[in-house]
Design a protein that fits this description.
By secondary structure, the protein is α+β, with helices and mostly antiparallel strands. The protein has a seven-stranded mixed sheet, with no helix packed on it. α1 crosses α4 and α4 packs across α5. The two termini are about 15 Å apart. The model has no long low-confidence stretch (mean pLDDT about 90).
Length: about 400
């Protein structure tokens, strides 16, 4: 039987709803990466043209290939890859690669991240494609995206070049950004580089187009995008103190509007929400009845210090519920997860934190089991026929 116990937790600063953010973007997704709390969604699951933001998927697969190494069919950072005529033929943002030359993998990765090189994407794609073509690699991108949980993404090319059917949702892009940050900490600092003068080939093309990197708001990634169809978009991330925020926007009318919207979102996410401690390791929030145990109850405690993201402004305590299936069957081992502490802050999704047993509870002996059985029978007699049913 599901048991619910209401609890009230005194906090210094919590409970007023945060001010909603009205974004100008046609689609957006904002999350607190530290806690996994979604702060804003707008058409977040709609598949849309992602422009160059889809280069993040090419980069994810390239990072995986480097980690595998050449011996397992992957790449080496110092390996040189050939530039095909197809790669050179791409317009738009470019590393200005020339057909027939070879380029180091590390330079190609920087060329994609900093210069948004369509040509660099194709060189990587053709090297990793099962049939040596960009489209063959795009099929792999779609398959890998599905495996990562990106269910609203389909890739037709490696760069985000406008093409019918090449789409991603804002939620998928945020999921991908989170995976890049957590799965590849050795490569993530590349996204904060503000310039890359490849071979001094085109000095005017050395600057990163990501506007948030120089705003002084803790931003350290990830990728801009722009086509006539998609508008101006950005996948961004910023860290202030112990918190990191990931945001994705698209459909802005100008580069200046994209920059202003990005800065406003980051400031809103950090100022309107704050981490609050709701309990320390070992704090007891409730007790659960024990079935057929040597003791009648077991404490439900925090296994570690518990924090939750809440609106920053505050006037009162917040309510929560302890939810578990009880009575709990003995034997019980200290630290067994038995319950959840459930919050529903105003304006934020439900948050669940695990509670565990505070001690070992052995199975009861004969006398204990007999007494339990007698209590059950007595309860049924008192309840009568209706209660028994």
């Amino acid at each position: 039987m599901i048991r619910v116990i209401a609890v009230c937790i005194a906090l210094i600063g919590a409970a007023l709803p945060a001010s909603a953010f009205e974004t100008k973007a046609t689609a957006a997704f904002v999350m607190d990466q530290t806690t996994g709390t979604v702060l804003l969604t707008k058409n977040a699951d709609q598949p849309l043209p992602p422009a160059s933001m889809s280069k993040l998927m090419t980069l994810y697969m390239a990072f995986e290939a480097v980690r595998r190494g050449k011996s397992e069919g992957g790449l080496d950072l110092n390996e040189e890859l050939p530039v095909s005529e197809h790669a050179q033929s791409y317009g738009g943002s470019s590393m200005f690669l020339r057909s027939g030359e070879t380029v180091r993998v590390e330079d190609l990765l920087r060329g994609i991240i900093v210069l948004s090189g369509n040509d660099a994407c194709v060189v990587i794609a053709e090297a990793l494609s099962p049939d040596g073509t960009e489209y063959g690699f795009a099929r792999l991108m779609t398959e890998r995206a599905q495996q990562l949980g990106m269910t609203n993404s389909t890739f037709i090319n490696a760069s985000g070049w406008p093409q019918t059917g090449h789409v991603m949702s804002m939620r998928d892009l945020a999921l991908l950004a989170n995976r890049l940050i957590t799965d590849f900490p050795e490569f993530y600092p590349l996204f904060a580089e503000t310039e890359f003068a490849f071979d001094n080939r085109v000095p005017s093309n050395r600057l990163n187009r990501n506007p948030v990197l120089t705003m002084g708001i803790g931003a350290d990634g990830l990728k801009t995008g722009h086509t006539q169809e998609a508008g101006y978009g950005l996948v961004g991330s910023a860290k202030q103190g112990d918190r990191r925020v990931i945001f994705v926007i698209t459909g802005l009318d100008t580069a200046a509007e994209r920059a202003q919207e990005s800065q406003a979102i980051v400031n809103w996410a950090f100022r309107q929400f704050a981490m609050r401690e709701v309990g320390k390791a070992g704090d007891q929030f409730a007790q659960a009845d024990v079935w057929m145990g040597a003791e009648p109850t077991v404490g439900l405690v925090a296994a570690e210090d518990l924090t939750v993201l809440l609106p920053a402004l505050a006037t009162r305590d917040i309510n929560a519920e302890v939810v578990f299936t009880g009575p709990v069957q003995a034997p019980i081992t200290k630290g067994d997860p038995l319950a959840e502490l459930v919050f529903t802050p105003d304006g934020l999704p439900e948050k669940r934190l695990t509670l565990v047993a505070d001690r070992n509870v052995a199975a009861g002996g004969f006398v204990s089991r007999l007494m339990t059985a007698a209590q059950v029978l007595l309860a049924r007699v008192i309840a009568g026929p209706e209660g028994q049913s």
